[in-house]
Amino acid sequence: MKRLPLLLAALPVLAILLYLGTWQVQRLHWKADLLARIAASEAAPAMPLRDPPEPLAKVRVTGRFDHAREATVGIEARGPVLGTHLVTPLLRDGAPAILVNRGWVPVERTRAVTRPSGEITVEGWVHPGDRPNLFSATDDPAGRRFYTFDPPAIGAALGLPVTPYALVALGPAAFPDPARTLPRPTNNHLGYAITWYGLAASLLGVLAAFALRRKPT
Question: Which of 38, 60, 76, 161 has the greatest CB tally within 10 Å of its CB?
């Protein structure tokens, strides 16, 4: 009779472990589908920008860069060189400006940044924008230095109405140096599922051994 309470107490734990394993399997399939869609989007030609766009979509948009209001976002080291990302508003006729992350540049620049003039078509992927959290560095709106890529906040600091999303430029090596590929989230869910199911199997083994254990004579 002493075994029954222990078995009953273990059942909710077993159910939780099985639920977590099943949830990770579902996440695995969702992430695999997302990665497949990103790969297909990357391989396909850029589509005209539609509003609202799908996050991570590869699109093209035409406008004029407002270099007088460019800003920097984030800090990224490449080898021994500390750099940041150059963000420039792209002005469009009859539509809000869109912030374009033109690419990485060193914080200490030893050569001039390329700043194309006139109408230009930019290809890139749609960045839905980030929001600051408790651990985010403090932006410097007056200095146009930002550490969270939050388009509405950056647009307000620049005194310019912008879309709630941004564009990360894609292209070959240049200065600034644009992105080459679309971002791909990690997919570790198979390992997580194996862990949870493994713990569930281990618990079943312990319960079976306990239930089959002979009482001492």
Answer: 38
